[in-house]
Amino acid sequence: MRRFNWWRKSTSTGDWTDSKWSSYWSALKNDDHRASFDQTDAWLRQVSAYQSRMNESSLKRRTFPMITYIKSHRLRFASLAVLMLMILVACTMPVEQEDIVGYVLSWTVNDTPEAANRLVTHFDWMDESNLSVSHNINNGQHSTMYLMNAVGVSAQQAELWRQDLESLSQVSEVKMLPLQETVTRPMYAAALKSVFRIEINTQHMSSSDVVAEMQRQLEAAGIHEAHVEYEEENGERRMRLSIPPQPEREGQQTIVMSITDGESNPKHGQNAYSFSLMLHDGDLEGKSEAEVQAIVAERLKAQSLQNGGEWTGTEEGQAGEPQIVVRKGDHVQIETISSSTGNEGQTVHTEEVRVFVGAGAEDTPEPELHITQELIDPAELKGKTDAEIKTLIEQRLRDAGQNPDDALIEVDNGKIKVELRQEKIIQK
Amino acid sequence: MSLVDHFSEALKPHYSEALTYCRSLCARFSAEEAEDVLQQALLKAYEKFNTLRDPTRFKPWLFQIITNEFHSVVRRHFWKRFLPLEFPATDDENLPKMPPVYDRAESDETKLMLRQALSSLSDKERAAILLFEIAGFSIEEIQHIQQEKSASTIKSRLSRARRKMRRRMTAQESQRLHTTTFKPLIGDIEHETLQLVAKVNIDGRLD
């Protein structure tokens, strides 16, 4: 009734009466399709029979189309899975890289310890905290051997220091040895480290500006004496870069160069530098993370690891503050990052220091450094047995302030070799 | 009794109405296309018949399936204009084809006029008025079939559909009067009166 009232109300306009409206719809409603029902019923039964003929596997295929799809392309999916696994392994597999983390300078001053000390402190770059001194008296003649551990110093700077030392007449046997460490990194990190990138936006830059900028970036990255040619002819630009062998950058052969014209955002280059620092196991016992950070900061500060030999500080929020990124018990990995802005704010150099402490440093073997020094005049050895010679050497070592137990003494039919292991150079 | 027996038994009382509804709903389509819609709807209904909990609700359930299938066919037609994709053969294509159930050549003038008027409606308006007039569903049932939130939506939809149809059918009637073989005489009062009535119905005003 409700339906009827609403409908009567909406149809009571114009000359369209209910009866006229109904007569139209009646024509349609009177359509009788019942005659075709039997045909439709028969068709439905055919469909039913067809569906029952379908085997179980095809029904499953309809029910689980994704599983069916994967099964039908299992070779493709399997190869994709293997490929993904290989990429994952390639990215995470640890590889060893040799890094030059600094230089060891050794020299001998043929003078008394006091005079030698005065001579050494003459240089303002001399860092006494990194200095190892051994004094010897040979036939009443004094000689003092110095070893300086210059971690984080470039080859160029170490070479200048070596020349400074050689300029002194009292100084002899000046040697400069690279301090190498085997560092274990994931493969992707090793690949990244072996890539050196040059990025220059040449907009509003002349050819000479581009060459100067490129040389500046190469120098900043530690690549010296590179020869850059830049030519422009008939709108064509040509650049030739030749780099002499760089012993300092051994193993880092890939250079990526990006030179762009036109508008672009300032480019950021990254020059990552990392090394390992050993601490005594006892240094970490019962220490909080903040205390460990403070210890590492102090050690880094002592070794002047930052650019230009200046530690940027350890206050909170300041660049260069060491951050503990991994700590499992006494295994600690600490990362410090300091940034310096390059030319016109376009290039940012980031220095990164990783410190492995305690058992965590197992992967970074301690560098071995053997210094051989003659302690005894061969004339003194005449008529002495091997055992007597060994005793004499031990005595001389004690006189020189060394512990004979730390030395390797070999005497074989009068041939003598004494090696002092300079462990404290690294564990200082 | 098998599933097909149950389904056939449930379908039989509503079969004729369902076919009329489907053909009128597909007023803009050919008889073959209307049969495709019906075939797909009946197949779906048969396959899902087990899921119907209340057998007394078979009629609105069947008409809802027909309506949904019609909308999906309309959508498919729409996207085919932009994406003329060739779909791979499926198992469904191997199913037996439904026998023809609709007349290929409709001769009834009234039905043709009504279908033309229906084709001027939107798809939802057409479905609503057909569900109301042919299937005899209440407003609430149409609301459920068309999945609308309020009954007033259906009421206004029906009212709008009816108004559109009335306008279209009046125009068709008037056109039919003009094209009739009857030759009017000058001063024929009856003819002039019919013309005047037609004009008022079309324009709603008298100049």
Q: What does this protein look like?
A:
The complex is a heterodimer of chains A (428) and B (207). The longest helix of chain A is centred in the N-terminal third of the chain and has 19 residues, at 74-92. Chain A has 428 residues and is of the alpha+beta class. Chain A is elongated and about 140 Å long. Chain A folds into 6 domains: 2-31, no CATH class; 41-92, no CATH class; 96-187, ACT-like. Chain A, domain 2 (Alpha-Beta Plaits, 2-Layer Sandwich); 194-260; 281-363; 370-427, no CATH class. In chain A, strand 13 (407-412) and strand 14 form a beta hairpin. In chain A, the strands form 5 sheets. In chain A, strands 2-3-1-4 form a 4-stranded antiparallel β-sheet. A 3-stranded antiparallel β-sheet of chain A has the order 9-10-11, covered by helices on one side. Helix content of chain A is 35%, strand content 29%. Chain B is mostly helical. Chain B has 2 domains: 1-105, Rna Polymerase Sigma Factor, Chain: A (Orthogonal Bundle), CATH 1.10.1740; 123-207, no CATH class. Chain B has helices at 3-11, 15-25, 31-47, 58-82, 109-119, 123-133, 139-145, 151-178, 189-203. In chain B, helix 8 (151-178) packs antiparallel against helix 9. Chain B starts with a helix and ends with a helix. Chain A binds chain B through residues 3, 6, 10-11, 13-16, 24-25, 27-29, 31-34, 36-37, 39-48, 50, 54, 58, 62, and chain B through 2-4, 7-8, 12, 15-16, 19-20, 23-24, 42-43, 46, 91, 94-99, 101, 108, 110-111, 113-114, 133-134, 138-139, 155, 158-159, 162, 166, 169-170, 197, 201.
Structure keywords:
heterodimer; A: 428 residues; alpha+beta; 6 domains; 4-stranded antiparallel sheet; 13 helices; elongated; B: 207 residues; mainly alpha; Rna Polymerase Sigma Factor, Chain: A; 2 domains; 9 helices; 65% helix
